[in-house]
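Honest question from a wet-lab person: if I give you the sequences of every part of a complex, can you actually get the arrangement of the whole thing, not just the pieces? Trying it with mine:
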Amino acid sequence: MTDAAYVQRILNGDADAFTQLVDRYYERCARFAVRMLGNRDDAEDALQATFLRAYRSLGRYQERDRFSAWLYRILVNQCRSLASRRGQREKVFIREEAALLNAPDKSRGWAGEEEELVQRILAELDPLLREAFVLKYVDELSYEEMSAATGVGVSALKMRVKRACDRLRARWEYIKND
Amino acid sequence: MKNSLIRSGIVAATLIAGATLLGAQDVRDRSGDPLGKLDPQTRYAVELMLDSAKLAGLPYGPLESKALEGISKRASGRDILVAVRRVLRTLRDARSALGPLASADELTAAAGALRVGISGAELTHLASVRDGKMSLTVPLIVLSDLVTRGVPRDTASLTINQLLRGGAADDDFLGLWRSVERDIVSGTDPGVALLNRVRQLPPRVQAGPPAAGVRPPEEAKS
Amino acid sequence: MTDEFDSLDANVRWIATEARRPVPVDADARARLLEAVRREPVPTSAIPIMAWLTEPRGFSLPPFATAALAAGLVGIGVLGGLLLNRDGRRAEQSAVAVVHPQLPDSAAAHSVKFVLIAPQASKVSVVGDFNGWDAGATPMSSRSADGTWTVFVPLQPGLHTYSFVLDGSHFVPDPAAPMAPDDGFGHRNSVVLVRKPAT
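Yes, you can. This is the full assembly:
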């Protein structure tokens, strides 16, 4: 069943159909939230807020917007709001200091460590660059979808993605040269 | 307070008469890569902050300049990082206080004021008094300088506020600064020096009514 | 899209691949969400039912503001650094947000004279944001033995931070100029404001 069909059922009174939509999108959204916010607790708060907001706004969802793009828009905004409210810019692990002091060691092997490593590297990026990179190469949205989700123009997003990639590439250079 | 250094160049020169000459490192970088002198980790961290400045629409020149200054002054990577971050943070705060239309110079001057303890709320208040008619750069520079020289913050802030409301121009502020600085260097109490010299300004400029209750503006609700 | 991914730097591709791993989802959190949803009033369509019967037109890219309204997102704070133009209209958002240039139309440099009396120094230069704080870039000259060092430097209109360097390593502020805040390295700098010529 298409997303739109589920929405239609919900609006017709079948509230349980929302569960299906949640099932379809929860993991994807959770991954985005964790990559952006850096910790599970904040991510869960953002997810909660996102899906509740989506549910309440279903009446205003119009089919000309693809549902996933519409949902991502809410998700992106919720993550931004939460990050701002929690003062994530100046969080305890100050991004630049982390970059300076905690050069990640790629030579270590096991999977759990690698995810933590990647999370740390992503956390070093400016949130707007991180957002663009994650939407593009983790969530695999098209630039048009990213634009709708973030409210930023396509060319600006391309520049952000490129800059994020430059930073990430440089990160490994600096590690190698240590 | 390094009053001896401020007093005159002659004194400053005398102080360094006995200084040992450190090996002069060539910090010039002709390759067009000014940050190239930084160690890779510091450089990366600085670039992260440049990203943030650019994305936030803040002038990034002051950040880059601060890094170069640190190189020239042979500061550690850590100290450079801390200094650059402080520039970023105060520019951000200055932008919050002055609003999106503030010029790069105003932001820099406001960041300086924040550094000497003037609050964001006071800056916002000054901006509203000026009402975008003229630049706040000079009043803020003078304000920061006077506080640095020992004028009590409230005295300095209220005085600048009063002068702004009286329509004081850049030249009025600079003239005031010059005479107050001279007085302080000659030994006058800084706060007293300021109040004395303000009284000597043309009546139109000091005519601004003092702030109601002569209290600093209240903290903006967050 | 896969082309772009494949052409990424190998290390960046590795980062993206790792980042794509699913994150473990807390079953409790999900259950709580669904609980919360059940407590909500069932949403009703604010749009005439006829709209649902139209053929989906495929994804379109409406202007930001319209899309926000259509998606019922009015009221969600969008922290995207929207800029306002001078006249208050919302500016085009760009990756590198524009800082309104405040330099005058004729951004011609003006020659500024720096002076320091330092008879004991054997060499003096001025450093600042205009020369990358490079001690070798702007040496000053002392014409006579009275220890007066001078140099003329072309500076763009605007605010400049600077310092003098004595004998290659001793930083001193300009006694004749307003002071900048503590430089963060244990020294004090000076500021100079170069004014555009009166028109």
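Two things worth pointing out. Chain C is about 20% helix and 25% strand. The beta strands of chain C are 110-117, 124-128, 141-142, 148-155, 158-166, 170-172, 179-182, 188-194.
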